[in-house]
Amino acid sequence: MFLNERKVLRVNLSSGKISKESINENLVKRYLGGRGLATKYISMEIDPKVDPLSPENKLIFANGLLTGTSAPTGGRYMVVTKGPLTGTIASSNSGGFFGAELSHAGYMLLIVEGKAKSPVYISIKDDEVKINDVSEMWGMNTHQVTDTILEKFGESNARVACIGPAGEKVSMIACIINDKNRAAGRTGVGAVMGSKNLKAVVVKGTAKIEFQDKEKFMAVVKGKTEIIRKNSVTGEGLPKLGTKVLDSIINQNGLYPTKNFQLGTFNKIDEVNGEALVEKGYLKKNVACYACPIACGRKVTLPNGKTGEGPEYETGWAYGADCGVDDLIAITEANFLCNELGLDTISAGATIACAMELYEKGYIPKEDLQKGPELNFGSSEAVVYYTKAMGMREGFGDKLAEGSFRLASAYRHPELSMSVKKQELPAYDPRGVQGHALEYATSNRGGCHVRGYMIAPEILGIPEKLEPQALEGKAQWVKIFQDLTALIDSSGLCLFTSFALGADDYKDLINTATGYNFTTEEILGIGERIWNLERKFNLDAGISPAEDKLPDRFNEPLPDGPQKGAVVHLDKILPEYYKIRGWSEKGILDENKIRELNL
Amino acid sequence: MIKVRFFTLLKLFLGISEIDLDQDQISVKDLLFLINEKVEKDFLHKLIDESGELLRGTIILVNGKNILHLEKLNTIVKTGDEVNMFPPGGGG
Description:
- The structure holds 2 protein chains of 2 kinds.
- By secondary structure, chain A is an alpha+beta fold.
- Chain A has 3 domains: 3-204, Aldehyde Ferredoxin Oxidoreductase,  A, domain 1; 241-424, Aldehyde Ferredoxin Oxidoreductase Protein, subunit A, domain 2; 431-499 and 519-597, Aldehyde Ferredoxin Oxidoreductase Protein, subunit A, domain 3 (Orthogonal Bundle), CATH 1.10.599.
- Helix content of chain A is 40%, strand content 13%.
- Chain A has a 6-stranded mixed beta sheet with strand order 2-1-6-3-4-5, with helices on both faces. A 6-stranded mixed beta sheet of chain A has the order 8-7-12-9-10-11. Chain A has a 3-stranded antiparallel beta sheet with strand order 13-14-15.
- Chain B has one domain (2-86): Beta-grasp domain (Ubiquitin-like (UB roll)), CATH 3.10.20.30.
- Chain B contains 2 helices and 7 strands; from the N terminus they run βαββαββββ.
- Chain B has helices at residues 8-14, 28-38, and strands at residues 2-6, 18-21, 26-27, 59-62, 65-66, 76-77, 82-86.
- In chain B, the strands form 2 sheets. Chain B has a 5-stranded mixed beta sheet with strand order 2-1-7-4-5. In chain B, strands 3-6 form a two-stranded antiparallel sheet.
- The longest helix of chain B is centred in the middle third of the chain and has 11 residues, at 28-38.
- Chain B is globular.
- The A-B interface holds A 231-234, 236-238, 240-246, 248-249, 252-254, 274-275, 278-279, 296, 312-314, 449-450, 453, 456, 459-465, 467, 495-496, 499, 561-563 and B 7-9, 11-12, 55-59, 61, 63-66, 68-69, 84, 86-92.
């Protein structure tokens, strides 16, 4: 099977209809696969104003162009839909092995439509696709349902993507879990799956992917893999410490958000950082996704015998410093719970942090907590208890399951939700990094760091070091990072390759795999097209450019650390960003831009 | 005294988290070589390349400020200053 022979698999849960269709090559050349192609399908097929939890929304499991090949890290896939947390386009990226297996079954996209009358799961074995009754599996956590379905399915090395109780109960911050510990995490994609009464997808694929010139492709694969292995970040830092290599770096640079972004440094960092995970003996080995030479995943076992994967940097921060918690065991247990219940760890931890500030300020009455412990910063008990309650929508957990913005608004203090477009901000205080602040404000899926990871140049010095407080030139950098990320997310490769590879490298991999002749400029142009398509969808969905803003807290100076006194200066660089993007002063796309980009 | 703190893989590699040095008005470059002599393991290759330049992604802070925005390896460190050292790292 050649890459371009992979099909769209369409499953309508309302009618039970299953169909397959070819993909127009023109679409692939304009959007590649993954995030780009699926966003195009969403744009073509749903009304942007649709209720995300209605049967009219669609849920797309989207493989990248190179997913399932031996391109280094060629195992990523996206889940693309309209996100219930934000009302924006939602595209969550995940690793593991599910995407590659779906690719080997012959599919680039799995489009799920409608809503089943009662809970079901989809089984795929190459051409054979069925909708199956879930019966007693509804209610199981993600690990239980994965094991049960694999046993029923009976195919060796099949892969499962599923929701836990959080998705079934349509939590705004529910995620989709594949291979038990990988997550299409953000923006409530798990709630969309739950709203369709879809519990899981199990897939077995046996096709071998062919290439026009296999030798040429494999030579390029070998070359890029070598670059990744030799690079200090992807060849040493990430394999040995995982993403928690960042804890000390971000803390010592003074932008490690602590206690719901009230502080920029955490005085108990040594108890919970990446070094601690190793020194305390919890880290047992590192874990790799499909075709990945980096292996940044963490396999851990706690002293009480509990075992699982993680925590990642974001998770360790959200349940750690953001909640004022210095207990690595509690943090790791909360992480395990999120994987089992199917919750986005960033939004879950950050929502608890928001609740802690609301509670300590007296805005949440104690009786609202019902049987739960007090929501004080630093409480290990609270982070574990309320994660479980959130996942099961029990007691006060029912309110937490709505995410921090809806929670804080219900208690009349929305300003205490550290979110953009209602999605919780991740583990970097924007006052410490002006370019990254702009990424937060303008990311198409709300508060997000990965879509334009300005931390790389502003803090890490990759590909070059920018002064974090400088404003000049930052808007252009943000655009380039956003466009490049959109390209990588559509190629099926992992974002972490960008610590070692550049646009030219992605171009080489794409061209030799497909026989296309893209230039580097054209490749980045694809990323720009995808970014603008997402923006257009959001505007049509009613998301105003006025939402390109940051919480008021960030106009107050950082109170501590080496960047004490810093504030954000969004008003100074947002107009420049709009101009560089070719949008109007009000941040709107015009017809010329739409035509120019061939959206 | 100049306090030098080691983080992430450097801390794990050396087995120490910090060292105090009775020095004043010393360049970061000279400080690196001085520490390399004092500690049991040769660690310079974790931070700088064969030509003596910082590896891309190496972070050295003096009182919280990255030396790439000061005088780079020629940045002068005084008594009472704190120096933080990180080999290249990344994530999300």
